[in-house]
Amino acid sequence: MSDILDGTASEGETARARLTFDLDADICVVGAGLAGLTVALEAARLGASVVVLEGRHVGWSASGGLLGTVMPGFGLGLKDLIARIGLEDARELWDLSKEGADYVRAQATEQQMPGIAVTDGVLEVSNVDAGDRLISELQVLSEDFATEVEGWQIDQVRARLRTDRYFHGVYFPKAFQIDGRKYVHGLAELATRAGARIFEDTPVVGIDASGIRKRIVTPSARLRASHIVLAGNVHLGAPSRRLSETLLPVWRYAGITEPLGDRLSDVIAFKGSVIDTDGIDQFRIVEGGRLMWASPETTWDARPRRQAAGIARRIRTIFPQLGRVQIEDVWGGATGQTVHGMPQVGQLRRGLWVASGFGRQGLATSAMAGQLIARSILWGDERWRLFSPFELVWAGGITGRAAGHLIGLWERGSSAAAGALARYRERLREQERIREERLAEANRLAGMRPMRSQPPPGQPSPRPQRSPQPAEHPEAPVVAGPGERSV
User: From start to end residue, where is composition biased (Pro residues) (predicted)?
Assistant: First the structure.
């Protein structure tokens, strides 16, 4: 999968031409990632003329390198979301995220995207013993947000994942995972069939969003459209620098191991995706008995191959039984994270739309955003206003990246310390349990020893017999006391 990053199309993927002539369209989408392609697909299906401009190639950067986990939710925690906008609006946003997951499942079929490899089930595991928090989360998800979930106790989690690093878990049976790379290219094929036109190697160098017909400038052509959708994330650059600076660029890399054979099935018996609650580890088993594993996030770019050793160390930390594993391929890309933890979805000004900020949001959220914007443009769907409380906030530039890096290190360190403390306490409880069992067993054995026989009730206790005094020897001499004489 490393060819995702080198700017070339892989075997079996369509190479698309650059835009070299002037063009008019109803909608121009800037960026051929997951959100942009979803806008293009849905708008074309609804009858609009759509042009997609991509500076590199379809699925470049993060959209082509996802692990493919699809589940409802946002980067902002559910309780924080409720506190920010209230329960009713939080429910509506959550329903939108579920619609996004349903949309992905509807597109990701073998008929439309051969080899997409859909598998069900996502398990969110805790790095600490958090039973009370688990119960609270389950109640909110099932009762307030109508989401099917199961709570897994520690023994149930460890029966599937043989490591002492994880404690309780929340299982989402209707969540699923797909081949993320095939999905993004499958979206492009579906959009093309629906009538959208996709141009690669066509960066946007200028945008004039004034007037009814907006103007978009590329190095070799110009385009006019009634609506522009900015779906380029942190890569928008000069044409929309103000927007791109509201996003903190975050890189995440993933690796895939050599085939691990029986030793993998002996250690991991769960076939879906596993995500820890601290957002540090994410992994799943893929075809051929390989382990796909995502590294912790970083705010600085690096060559993917340099991350291989770190990914291997992380695997060995969680599952030491696997021993040393060889990482055969590494890939990655940059996403944009917002300060408030929610995606940027909606209309910036008349005819100018945004769909970005999908770092930590998941694949379902980008699908939801693309579908929602297409329907907003063509049907007048106003639900995008639910995202209005999450305004554009400057991410701090270089200072923000440095701060984000330090915060990430602190969070990972805090998570490691909390996990170590939780495992230490667990060992103490186990030692105390063993001591109590030994004490109980000793008391039980003491109670089984034969006791001295007692007389039947009503009978006197036998008098204790005195030990017989030694008989006087008949020939022993008698010694006279004072004033006596011997005989």
Answer: 453-467
